[in-house]
Design brief:
- The protein is mainly β and 368 residues long.
- The protein has three domains: 96 residues, no CATH class; 115 residues, Immunoglobulin-like (Sandwich), CATH 2.60.40; 116 residues, abc- transporter (atp binding component) like domain (Coagulation Factor XIII, Chain A, domain 1, Distorted Sandwich).
- It is built from five helices and 22 strands.
- Strands 12, 13, 14, 15, 16, 19 and 20 form a seven-stranded antiparallel beta sheet that branches.
- Strand 10 and strand 11 form a beta hairpin.
- Helix 1 runs parallel beside helix 2.
- It is globular, with a radius of gyration of 24 Å.
- The N and C termini lie far apart (52 Å).
- The model has no long low-confidence stretch (mean pLDDT 87).
């Protein structure tokens, strides 16, 4: 086994504090403890590192405040519990004293309510607004693997067939996570499965004025990592990554694009990354390969989970385009009565008598 020194685990703990990340260590199989029988003498002879395969995961859970979970004991319930635990969260603000130095500090959290299980990182990262260095240009942040947490961003992506040769049109959508932020520059990079950047978009000032930011690139089918970087009027910088499958979903003789959620404004569809008090959300996708007049079943569902029971079902309206083999499908999804939270929107399309295709998108609804 390779040797991991204690200071390397400490570095991971400090990085987790800076990234504000919560860790779950998923153990795919039961591992047996293997005791070390070697005895080290005063002169150092006989030294042998630990052969216990659990120690690394235990150290990782300790320095990150993570929870270790076993797939073999609970099966799918392990990941279901993880999904529920991360579905919602609260943000707490900690007021620091002027004497507190910048960097990582120990953190201990207690609850006065009985029966509450607390999981917290053992470190918290303190950064002072006056000491935050000015962020690099967005195009430079794209090329770096470093974390830029000072400007929180949210991002998503969706894809549709671009031309008969099979190339895909990949669209990235992003916005500042905090309302009221004025973005001054933004760039989007597209990386293929080998990590090579295959596209770069520097957004113009006009594109920065209307959220979400949208950038488009034409790429071959595949899975891409989309990295969005931006700076705001205070000099803060942030970057976030999202993985996007640029491929069409088969549905018998049909092919389905990604499902996109948004609103109709000024007779134009505008994608949205989250919703609040809107009575409906518009679900939209492209359908390729159909023939006008074919008996097509098309509907959209709201559910709590990807395979959970439908809360409501709506019909998808299918309209033709200038391309006789390409159609647009859309539906008004009622969300006004839903409480805040995350929901799965499922679009199911297919020709009668043929296999149905399904594409999904998570809808996040927040309070007013």
């Amino acid at each position: 086994m390779c040797e991991l020194r204690p200071e390397e685990f400490t570095h991971v703990g400090h990085a987790a504090a800076q990234a504000r990340a919560h860790f779950y260590i998923i153990q795919p199989e039961d591992l047996q403890r293997m005791p070390t029988n070697a005895v080290q003498t005063v002169g150092g002879a006989g030294f042998s590192p630990s052969l216990n395969p659990l120690e690394g995961m235990e150290h990782l859970a300790s320095v990150t405040g993570g929870q270790r979970m076993s797939l073999t004991r609970l099966g799918d319930q392990t990941l279901v519990g993880l999904a529920r635990a991360t579905a919602t969260y609260y943000s707490a603000v900690i007021d620091s004293a002027s004497s507190d130095g910048e960097g990582s500090h120990g953190l201990e959290i207690k609850a006065s309510r009985s029966g509450v299980q607390i999981r917290a990182r053992p470190f918290i990262n303190v950064s002072r607004p006056g000491l935050v260095p000015r962020a690099p240009e967005p195009s430079e942040m794209l090329k770096s693997a470093a974390v830029f947490p000072n400007l929180p961003l949210r991002a998503s992506g969706f894809a549709s067939l671009n031309d008969p040769s099979g190339n895909m049109r990949l669209v990235a959508a992003a916005e500042a996570a905090d309302p009221g932020v004025v973005l001054t520059a933004a760039s989007v990079g597209y990386f293929d499965s080998s990590g090579k950047m295959v596209g770069l978009t520097n957004l113009t000032k006009d594109q920065l004025t209307t959220p979400p930011l949208l950038a488009t690139v034409v790429v071959p089918p595949g899975t891409y990592r989309v990295r969005v970087a931006a700076t705001d009027s205070t000099g803060r910088g942030g970057a976030t990554d999202v993985e996007v499958a640029a491929e069409m979903t088969p549905a018998g003789a049909l092919k389905l694009s990604s499902l996109v959620l948004g609103l109709w404004r000024d007779n134009t569809f505008h994608p949205r990354l989250q919703f609040s008090t809107e009575p409906v959300a518009i679900a939209y996708l492209d359908v390729v390969g159909g023939v006008a007049g074919a008996p097509v079943a098309a509907f959209v569902e709201i559910a709590r989970t990807a395979n959970g029971p439908a809360i409501s079902t709506s019909r998808l309206a299918i309209e033709g385009t200038s391309d006789p083999s390409r159609f647009q499908a859309s539906a008004a999804v009622p969300i006004g009565a839903l409480p805040p939270g995350d929901y799965v929107i499922r679009a199911i399309v297919g020709i009668d008598g043929q296999p149905m295709g399904r594409v999904t998108r998570v809808l996040r609804k927040v309070g007013q």
